[in-house]
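User: quick one
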Amino acid sequence: MTPPATTPANPFAGKQNRRALHEFLTRWLLRLGTFSLVIITLGILLHIAAKGVPVVFQPKWPYVNSKFLTALPATLHVIEDSKGHKIEVDANEADQVKAALNHNIRSETTISYSGGGILGPIVGTALLVVVSVGVALFLGVACAIYLSEYAKHGKFLEMVRLAILNLAGVPSVVFGLFGLGAFVLTAPTFVDVPADRSVFSIPFGFTTLSFEGWDTCVLSGGFTLAFVILPVIITASEQCLQAVPQGFRETSMALGATRWQTIRYSVLPFATPGILTSSILGIARAAGETAPIMFTAALAFKDKLPWQKDLPPLPEDASFFAHWEQSVARFFGIFTESVQALPYHIYTLAAKIPQNEYAERAQYGSVFVFLVLVASLAASSVMLRKRLRAKYRW
Amino acid sequence: MSADSTAQSTPPPVVQVRDMDFCYGTSNALFDINLKVEYHRVTALIGPSGCGKSTLLRCINRMNDRVPSARVTKGEVLVKGKNIHDADVDLTQLRKQVGMVFQKSNPFPKSIYENVAYGLRIHGEKNKSVLDEAVERSLTHAALWEELKDRLHANALALSGGQQQRVCIARAIATVPDVLLMDEPCSALDPISTLKIEELMHQLAKEFTVVIVTHNMQQAVRVSDYTAFLHLGKLVEFAPTEELFTNPREKLTESYLRGTFS
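Assistant: Done. Structure below.
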């Protein structure tokens, strides 16, 4: 074998330089897109953390600004004395400070909602999330089970699916108005005397079922938010049910189980981790929506927690039963009272009051707490899912 | 005494299919099937793919009810002398007494114990000692008790494929069915596991009546007492296994057994 005298012309010649360039550009374009996404996300988070951490945390013990987390919002008074020192106090202490300064005051500014803390909005958002996720999981899982396990394929099923898709596309402010009409103004409730606005009422003698609405309250807001997150939960739950192997159902039926027994013991347990994952998405969405709760549950300002409802003071010798009744009424305030909510509070701080450094501080503090709250709610769902997955995996 | 002896010489068939037609929607899948399954015998259904042998098997415990538009259009299926399509037949009771093992071993991702006890639990059995006893008995029948008695609470998915399939058999026999339907129970298993299950079948036939669908003719010869050969939805020949394999009456059976078509 002698090597050929001349190297043969390259049989694989091509426009490789151009191709390489093309490949290089494509790769970098896609890479830049991905990176910019990460950078923007990090930018938002870091910016909020940088401005929010100083509001929520402090350099000395106990390191957390407990007042910001445990006090209700208040109007902030900034009083400047004759030497130019600025003193920041909440409305209830402003007179005291002014008296102490004995009229050596150069100026006084008041900034609405920026003093105190944000306990009210935190509690309100937590209650709204719990009610809405509870209602949406119940309705959503029921709907998903029906669609996946019971309904026959056909026109009706197609229509239901189309309706769910459409529900997902409805703007959130429309949900807000729907909630106003349906839950705040017309939902049925038991009363002694129906209000004038009652759509119609059914008297039972000892009480009356009146369609006069639940008023603006946690229940109205929670139900409205439930409809906002329902499509996500139905779709995800149905996918989780479909992912459970058909063999489990066949085996269970072949052993003589009824359809519901099959679902209860051989389908649902294995779909639960996935359903909980979908509820994480629901939680984040429900906590973040502003428009649906604007008309149904949220107030810009409220100086009471939902369980601190104003009730007529009881006489000295009031019976135990009367006290008990008042405690129960206060407790159910967590459903029947209107609340402040974090997203609406942030909106108020950002758009409804004159902007200055004090308002900004309250804004960033609230946003930071909001993010941490949503993240921790989601994290706890992830943990729960992980534990369930370890128990029921196939 | 004489009545007893005649009853023993010709016991009534546990499963009897009479002139049955079966349809999926508008297409006929089975035509005019007649089949008798005797107590404590292994009956094999063989035939080429798509001949309807699985469909026929699933007619016996009405598993085809799960398929919308699938139905028996003519004839009847009797189990223990009762037409199973009668309105007063409780499907859960029928399936409790006609157990089924599927092609793919599919234990629930639960403990071995819970898998075997599943059937009894859904039929309302709560007594722990009854369940314990049933689990032990079923696993013993499935030749698994010695292997698994120390790890009853381990996840059934941690077992080998052959063990999983035998857990499925134990699960199916825990409710003490009269008939055990097996739909190609060995097709996903290795030869050694297959052998174990085939050995098991002879044991099972002492307690139960077994109807097995298989695409493996040697398996039919090894395990069954009777064989039914199906082709294109028709039952071509039904005879004692030895007779069918050594001296088939039908040309079609003979050419299938010789491998002239498949």
